[in-house]
Design brief:
Elements: E1 2-7, E2 17-23, H1 24-28, H2 32-37, H3 42-46, E3 57-61, E4 69-76, H4 83-99, E5 104-108, H5 116-130, E6 149-154, H6 157-185, H7 193-201, E7 209-213, H8 215-220, H9 224-230, E8 238-245, E9 254-258, E10 260-264, H10 284-298, E11 304-314, E12 326-328, E13 334-336, H11 344-355, E14 362-367, H12 371-377, E15 382-386, H13 389-402, E16 406-408, E17 426-427, H14 435-444, E18 452-456, E19 462-463, E20 473-474, H15 479-487
Parallel strand pairs: 1-6, 2-4, 2-5, 5-6, 9-11, 9-14, 10-11, 13-17, 14-18, 15-16
Antiparallel strand pairs: 3-4, 7-8, 8-11, 12-13, 15-18, 19-20
Helix pairs in contact: 4-5, 5-6, 6-10, 9-11, 10-15, 11-14, 13-15
Bound molecules: ligand BES, manganese (II) ion and zinc ion.
Ligand BES binds next to helix 12.
Length: 494
């Protein structure tokens, strides 16, 4: 997206449409400034057809030679306008413009009781993400023209600088989310573990150092969890290491770990056929980590951040791992396999052990880990678990700020009973009850001596239906939260 900002002068800009945001109060107050610049809008402003209600939109044809379309987007009641409302309004505007085949829009930066830079940021986020589409495989594209240029129009010099700053932030964040979405939506015959590693390597273009460990190296490290899950697949596993050194030399890093199952058939404990194709998105955690690192590097955030991704398919075959098997992990612990479909925790276990070598300030793992999380929280919130209340608090706050929201679940020791094994240290499935928590508890067996949090994004990473700036399919959940968390990181957690 080409972004720019300039002082607002009627006729002093060119775009296929002009976007103006209007609150319900503006409408009740006659919206005089809109009428003054666009007299043609008087008709609709005098009618009750457009009330400025949130998520509403209408188009006025002004008859002007330049920018003859005026897109009016409602913001609702002034007192209830939040950044999330603004983000959604940005999506509404961009979607309407796209439907009208506009390649460029000029947005009048609304003056709200919110930080102007954050308003510009969220408008850009909503705008870019709202018109996201995955059309790579259509031989004939649905949209003939794509929105490619957004110009902000501001009234004051101060807003000019705020808009510039916010725009860059919004674009940096949206680029990471878009990358995560593309990785998730890619089919597993193309996005193999090797292809995922190559995509991660692409981040060297923004200054991220990427190292990819191959199967012999994984064997040498004794990553028994990753190797067990990989046994049934004809494609080799990889362990991807990404390093962003934006912080002071010697400052302990924040480590992000992402589940990278490029296809989860369930293995020998095979999943039912219905909807199995969605499991091409079982690398949503990996996508979030790659996406977040892209944004963090593009925005040159002054922290040291490491991304770790264990990646493989989970397939049934004559060589596949089986229920009843006992697996020995990198840290020497053992697990009895109760269900080969509980594979995510096995690959994450080794990655959590590997993370300890960085002496990290914190480790956060993200995974499309349990169907139980979708049952508990639906597609609205990510499940948060962890061993450090201060870290959990920071994550919760980042979730609220970005609307990439999380809800905490307890890792109470009473639940450990469910994953006790008769023959090994732990069992990889705890049965039906508290499935999200027992998965979190399993992971806790493999962490090092660092503050740790686990995000179960099974419900938020993939959606059955789009809404606002969130699309059907892979959403890039976790990217906005992680970027905000790292950006606002206040040093070591208590
Ligand atoms: N990848 C799935 C979890 C999942 C389900 C993600 C639906 C997104 C949507 C995971 O590997 C899995 O299969 N988990 C099992 C665990 C069980 C066997 C203990 C599950 O949730 O059923
Ligand atoms: Mn599974
Ligand atoms: Zn899985």
């Amino acid at each position: 997206m080409k972004l720019s900002v300039q002082r607002f002068k009627p006729e002093g800009y060119s775009a296929d449409a002009t976007v103006v945001f209007i609150s319900q109060e503006d409408i009740r107050g006659k919206a005089e400034n809109v009428r003054a610049h666009w007299p043609a809008a008087s008709g609709i402003l005098d009618s009750n057809d457009f009330t400025g209600a949130k998520d509403s939109v209408t188009v006025v044809y002004t008859g002007a030679k330049k920018s003859s379309r005026l897109i009016l987007v409602g913001l609702g009641e002034t007192a209830s306008i939040t950044l999330e409302r603004v983000r959604r309004a940005g999506a509404t505007a961009a979607q309407k413009a796209t439907a009208l085949q506009c390649e460029s829009i000029a947005i009048l930066l609304p003056s709200l009781a919110l930080d102007a830079a954050e308003v510009a940021q969220t408008l850009v986020e909503g705008g870019i993400l709202g018109v996201y589409s995955f059309d790579k495989y259509f031989t004939e594209k649905k949209e003939k023209k794509k929105l490619a240029r957004i110009t902000f129009l501001v009234d004051e010099q101060g807003d000019l600088n705020a808009a510039k700053k916010g725009m860059a932030m919004g674009e940096g964040i949206a680029n990471g989310v878009t990358l995560a979405r593309d990785l998730m939506n890619a089919p597993s015959n193309e996005l193999t573990p090797e292809a995922l590693a190559n995509q991660a390597k692409g981040l060297d273009a923004v200054g991220v150092k990427v190292t990819v460990l191959n199967k012999p190296q994984i064997e040498k490290l004794k990553m028994g969890g990753l190797l067990a899950v990989n046994q049934g697949s004809v494609r080799p596993p990889f362990f991807i290491v990404m390093e962003w050194k934006g912080g002071k030399a010697g400052e302990a890093p924040i480590v992000l770990v992402g589940k990278g199952i490029t296809f989860d058939s369930g293995g020998i404990s095979i999943k039912p056929a219905g909807g199995m194709g969605e499991m091409k998105m079982d690398m949503g955690g990996a996508a979030a980590v790659v996406g977040a690192l892209r944004s963090i590097a593009e925005l040159k955030i002054a922290r040291n951040v490491i991304g770790l991704i264990p990646t493989t398919e989970n397939m049934p075959s004559g060589s596949a791992y089986k229920p009843g098997d006992v697996v020995t992990f990198m840290n020497g612990k053992t697990a009895e396999i109760d269900n080969t479909d509980a594979e995510g925790r096995l690959v994450l276990a080794d990655a959590l052990t590997y993370a300890d070598r960085y002496k990290p300030q914190a480790v956060i793992d993200l995974a499309t880990l349990t169907g139980a999380c979708v049952v508990a929280l639906g597609n609205v919130a990510t499940g948060l678990m962890g061993n450090n209340p201060a870290l959990n608090g920071r994550i919760r706050e980042a979730g609220e700020r970005t609307y990439d929201r999380v809800v905490e679940l307890p890792l109470w020791e009473e639940y450990e009973e469910l994953i006790k094994s008769d023959i090994a240290d732990v069992k990889n499935s705890g049965g039906r009850g508290a499935g999200t928590i027992t998965a979190g508890l399993f992971l806790q067996h493999f962490i090092g001596s660092y503050p740790w949090a686990h995000l179960d994004i099974a419900g938020t990473a993939m959606l059955p239906k789009g809404s606002g700036y969130l699309n059907k399919g892979g959403t890039g959940a976790g990217v906005r939260l992680l970027v905000d968390l790292v950006r606002t990181w206040g040093g070591p957690v208590a």
